[in-house]
Structures are given as structure tokens and as C-alpha cells.
Amino acid sequence: MSRSAEKKQNFMHGAAILTVGVIIMKILGAIYKVPLGNILGDYGYGIFLSTYNVYNIFFTLSTAGLPVALSRMIAVADAQGKAATKEKTFRAALLTFAVIGLLFGMIMFFGNEWLAHFYLRKPDAALSVRAMAPAILLVCLVSAYRGYCQGNGNMIPTTVDEVLEVLFKVISGLLIAGWLVRTGHGLPEASAGAILGVSIGSVVSLAYMVVYKERNYKRPAPGTGEETESIGRIVYNILRIGIPISLGASIMAILSSLDPGICHSRLAAAGFSEHHAGVLFGVYGKVQTLFNLPAAFMTPLTIAIVPAVAGAIARGSRDEAAKTSEDAMRIASVISMPMGVGLAVLSFPIVNILYPRSHEAGPGLLSIMGLASFFVCIVLMENAILQASGKEKLPMIALITGSLLKIAVNWVIIAIPRVNIYGAPIGTLLGYLCMALIDYVFIRRSLHQNPNLFHAFGKPVICSAVMGLFAFAAYHGFMALLPLHGKMHMFLSMVLAILIAAAVYAAAVIKTRCITLEDMKLIPGGEKLARLLHMK
Known about the structure:
- By secondary structure, the protein is mainly alpha-helical.
- The chain has 20 helices and no strands.
- α1 packs antiparallel against α7, α3 packs parallel to α8 and α6 packs antiparallel against α7.
- The N terminus is likely disordered.
- The relative contact order is 0.09.
């Protein structure tokens, strides 16, 4: 096996490990958020969601770019065999991350009243914002350890650590929130109790990473004679590389944090009471959990496609780069489109089974959000292609334009009484559609070719449409035929409909060659699965 082929195989196995972690975390996340939504109710869950949106801003600013910068610097030092430089870089990063985490944590702890009243326009969230403060410091420290391991080409500790973090967050958050509700505490206190679970999970996460590094990465012996840069210079390089990435990634987190204020103020303009507006935003927050699911599966794929496109461009093969980009969007469509269609078509049973006491607007909101989730996945893939093409600043233009469109749409149509909270997912759908179109134009200019849109999206659209029809018909057919009643009737009908839809979609994908044998060869074990399915 050639060195390049070995690297590609190792890289794909790393992507597969991360994908397994994503699946486990999403399952645990559903276990967390679904019962938590039922414990807190729509209004209490709205408090929890608002707080989490603020946390995501600080989380993104502190962890989106800096660990990437650290990972890159560690990888360079590792390739050059500079063990002392690796260790010194890690220590400088740990100090930098600690200072940033402490600063952001203090802002949340001491500025909780201001953030709740003036930023979120939700005074009941003040206690939850303060409860989230320790998690910022802890997650910053954890990010330094994860960046160090990733820079050494080791994805296993990151995956295990993330699963441990979510597992303990789920257990402690649900136990604390449930206990507070049972003992007669109010919803603001119960939400803060659930938030404490995040900090508890982060403590376990940090402990694991500290032990892992000490056991698996020995510190170099002193006196090796290796010349290293100063701590100040290393910190400067980390910030120079990481800050632009963090600022770009934080745009969507900031946009999400604006949702509560915009939704509440415009619902008030539409004539809804504060409590009613809180309930509507709470059910919207619940369906956002499902809306985010398809995008989670794009991250390993975007990681895998970047070196392929970048390598083709470096070799001067624009045709190969365009073909690889087209294939990447096709694979993203094959994976994300059926998820979006499934959420839209089966929105009624999904919402009523997962959140049985939620507001009746839930299924309609999920139908729109399901369609929007497809465009989110395409934007993620397009951004990766542009970054691989050396055009990493262009996605910012699309992101800002789409975000402004979303805000404008939300501001106008949520205030229409007949539209109300449905305006929020409509704004999301139009915003991401705008981003996808702008990114596509940038890709055409960057690659100097026009990717075939029908090849990328045509067949997946047909397969997903057929799947959606079968899912819809199967669900209503089983609801009419099965001799059951109540939630179990709905649950069993939905599960059977999903199984039939999955089988129909798999057959359609193979028949239309949406996924080819060459695609399967890029996946660990994919060639064996392709032979089993008689793929050509």
C-alpha cells in the first residue's frame, strides 16, 4: 500500500470513528432533551433553550477555532519530530484556553441578570445563565486536550470523551431537574438544575482527558537541545489562526441566540401574551432538536472531502476537483434529503410521541424545519468545498447574507397573527436556501466549472420523494388497519412506516445508482457491504 493510500485509509477510519461518536451522542442527546422537555414543559424548556443559546455563543467563540489552531500546530511539530515543541505548545494553549474560559465564565456568572433581561428578554433565565458559567471554563480546558490528541492524529480520545461528557450530562441533568420539580421548585430553578448537568459532564470529560494524556503521551526529557519558540509567540500564533475561525463559526450561534428575543417581541406584536409566546417558542425549541440531527452527520463527511478537493487543486486537476465536489454534494444529498423528508412527512407522530403534551403547533413547525435541514447540510458541504479550494472567506458572505434574510423574514411574518411562530422556521428555510445558492455561485467561480446540479440532486430528489410517499401511505395505512389504540398505536405505525420507507429508499438508491461502488470503497467495510447488496 502506498503512503498516500495509507494516509487516506487512516483518515477515513478517523472520520468513521467520529461518525460513530456523533451517532451515540445524538442518541444520548435525544434521551436527554425529550424527557427534559416533558419534565420542564413548554415554558420551562423555553428557558432552558434560551440559556443554551447564550452558552453556544461563548462555547463557539472559545472552542470553534482555537482547538483547530492547536491541532494544526501540534501536527506540524509532530511531522518535524519536535517533541519539546509539541509539549510547550500544549502548555501555552492550556494557559490561553484557561484565561479565555475564565473570562467568559465570569461574564455569564456576574452578567447573568443583564443577559437574561436585555439580551434574551427572558428574566426567568437569569439563574440558568449563572448555572452555565462553570461549564465554559471546563469545556475550554477540555478543548486543549482534544486539540492536542487530534494534532497527533488520534481521534479515539475525542470520541470517547464526548460520549462520556454527554452521558453524565444526561444522567445528572435529568436527575436534578426531576428532583427540583418533584420537590415543588419553580421552572426557573428546574431549568438551572438541568443546566448544572452540563458542568458535571464537563468535569468527567476533563478528568478523562487529563488521565489519557498522562498515560499515553509522555513528556519529553529535558535537555534535548531542541530550540522552541517563546510562550508569547506560541500564544500569538494560536490566536492568529483561531480567532478568525471562531468569529466565522459564532455567527450562527449569535443568530440562534437572537431567536428568543425576536420571536417573543414579534409574537407580542401579534397580540400573544408573554406566557403564550413562551409556550410557542418552547415547542419551536423542541423541534429544533430534531432539526439539528441531519447536520450532525455532515461533519465527518466535510472533514473527509477537504483533502480530496485540495489535493486535486494542488495537482492542477480542476476537472477532478469539480467532479469530487459534485460527488460530495451528491452524497450529502443522499444522506440528508431522506432525513429531511422523513421529518416533514412523519412530523405528526414524531412530535406527538416524543413530546405528547406539547402545543399543537409542533408538527407543522417540524414539517418546515425538516425541509430546511436539507439546505443546512448542503451549506455545510459547500463551505467545506470552498475551504478546500482556498476560498475560506467566501462562506462568510453567504452566511451573513442568509442570516440577515432570516432575521428580516422572522421580524415581518412572526408578527402576522395567522403565521405567528411558524414564521421562525420559514425564515430558517429561506435563510439557508439563500446561503446554499450563494455558495454554489462561489463554487462555480472557484473551480472554474459548473457542477452538474441534476447529477448532484436530481436522483436523490426522486428517491426521497418516492420514499416520502411510501412513508406517508404506510403510516396512515397502519393507523387504519392495526387493532390498537392510543400512543402505542401511533408509535407502532410510525416505526413500521419508517422501516418500509428505509427499505424503499435503499432499493431506490441502489437502482438509480445514487451511490456507486466507488463511493462505498471510501467507507471502511463499504466494499464488502456493496458486494452483499450487489452494487456495481
